[in-house]
Amino acid sequence: MQAVENFIAAEPAIAELLAARPAFKMHAQDGLCFEDVPLNAIADAHGTPVWVYGAGSIRARYAALVQAFADAGLAPHIHYAVKANDHLAILSLLRGLGAGADVVSLGEFSRAQKTGVLPSNIVFSGVGKSRAEMAAALTAGIGQINVESAEELRVLSEIATGLGQTARIVLRVNPDVDAGTHAKITTGRADNKFGIAAHEIPALYAHAKNLPGIEPVGLALHIGSQILSPAPYAAAYGKAAALVRTLRAAGQQVSVLDLGGGLGIGYQDEPGISLAAFANAVRQQVGDLDVTLLLEPGRYLVGPAGLLLASVTLEKQAGTKRFVVLDAAMNDLLRPALYDSYHGMLPVSAVEFVSPVSPAEVVGPVCETGDTFATGRLLPGFAEGSRIALLDAGAYGAVMSSPYNARPRAASVLVDGGKFDLITPRQKLEDLWADEILPNAIK
Ligand code: LLP
Fold it and tell me: Which among 164, 171, 214 has a CA at the least distance from the CA of 194?
């Protein structure tokens, strides 16, 4: 019993979740509003499940990041990590704010280009770029390729030379720092697949300098995602700074330091990373290096700016457990199933918002027990059709969705200036099999 009480005490109440998110307001008549738009109006117009993104929130978050660095006397180039949310509307919005892009596939590169991001303002990361991807990016005039191994460097040199091009590259250092985040999204430890060990960098940099078709311009790091403390960043950037000095002492030119992304947000009641502390750590560790700084934030910019709006299909009691079954599932929002991650939930109805709560298992209709959004979550009683907002789903939400269980992909909507636009129609049933081919023999 003690354990249950502790668990419940640790959960933020729905009123606390709301209070911590100023873009959300509860109105007695309209119910829950996001950036002044009633979520009921969106669900009435476009059904559920539906992703809802807030342009105002994205603008504010971008501005706060720029300001925190300005306060620290720095002006890093922001290359939005497209993988967090690759919708053309989001990319266009961020491009309009001045962001470049960080991409990890030809698909992401093409999406960024499609929204007008100049290839020269795109960096290409990733541990396994294919020859075709390298060739396409070079042909288009990619600004920077982040090389993750000696093997990749050799192939890139071959391809660039064949195309008569010079690839501007940085070497991605694996600083062997534990970012203190979930094991599945940590990337900067020596046993992770990413980057090049620090002690191998000087020789590889010198080698790169002599390779045809390659121009090494600096270093990159990315130590993981959802990082809440500046300490692992400071440790990693300190190692990078030492490497830059070593390289320069050996006569190498180093003009770029790509600091990666990973800035963590508050999902439950933990505070997100302090931008001021992060910017100060950057200044302290690398501020005197006289390099162009790049940042690759994804989640920080778009995570809290999006939600998944779902409806309650039914409530069922099974033994002692109360199950709230939604029309959204793990195929829509995979993060809880994959990482046991927490997403806040708010009832959309003002009446439900103040109703008595009891512990609930919040699940989707997919035929797996892993299709669980929350266990023991304190929520009011719901009726069929009650609506629930799953919070902080703007990053790694829609991009990780799938049509598993032949569930059409959800619609998405962008809220801006008190209005909303449909930006992805709900997938139609016939679209589920539109690309499939029946061989004649089995027709
Ligand atoms: N740069 C590189 C090289 C990356 O690999 C990533 C994320 C980023 C930047 C952006 O990181 P962010 O600022 O968004 O933390 N699906 C997981 C997150 C995977 C992150 C992968 N790499 C999740 O849902 O938590």
Answer: 171
Contact 188, 177 (CB under 8 A): yes
Fold of 14-54+303-432: Lyase, Ornithine Decarboxylase; Chain A, domain 1 (2.40.37)
Q: Which protein residues are within 6 Å of ligand 1, measured from CB? A: 81, 83-84, 102, 125, 185, 222, 225-226, 260-263, 296-300, 335, 339, 395-396
Give the predicted TM-score (pTM) of the model: 0.96
pLDDT exceeding 70 applies to what percent of the chain?
A: 98
The reported pLDDT for the residue numbered 443 is 87
CATH class of 55-301: alpha beta
Residue 376 contacts residue 359 (beta carbons within 8 Å): yes
Residue among 331, 321, 307, 296 at smallest CA distance from 144 = 296
Task: Determine the residue of 296, 330, 338, 342 to mutate for testing ligand 1's pocket, defined as the one with the most ligand atoms within 8 A of the Cβ atom.
Answer: 296
Q: Torsions phi, psi of 216, nearest 5?
A: -75, 130
| Higher per-residue pLDDT: 10 or 8 | 10
Give the pLDDT score at 10. Answer: 64
CA-nearest of 229, 411, 399, 390 to 298 is 399
Is 33 known to be catalytic? no
pLDDT band at 414; cut points 50, 70, 90: very high
Which residue among the candidates 1, 249, 367, 438 is catalytic per the annotation?
Answer: 367
| pLDDT, average across residues 239-249 | 98
Per domain, the residue ranges of the chain are 14-54+303-432, 55-301
Pocket test for ligand 1, best of 104, 146, 225 (most atoms within 8 A of CB): 225
Q: Whose CA is nearest to atom 8 of ligand 1?
A: 261
Does pLDDT of 2 surpass 60? no
